[in-house]
Amino acid sequence: VKLEDQKNRLHYAFVKFIRVACAAFSPLVIFLDDLQWADISSLDLLKVIMLDQGSANLMVIGTYRSNEVSPDLSKTIQEF
Known about the structure:
Elements: H1 3-24, E1 28-32, H2 40-51, E2 58-62, H3 71-79
Parallel strand pairs: 1-2
């Protein structure tokens, strides 16, 4: 299985899990600390989850140290 297909399957599984959690235990709040250390793959997964229209009862709260922001995190923040 190609790497891109594996990534898409992982994203799909996480989105489905979040949708189930939002439906059964609404609302769902996810708190992520120290986002300045997140890699690009984790930030991509976070974007997929946050942009999913089926997760209406989801709130994502993220924190980071402003003096240690990576270019990847900066780009992700600017997209939202």
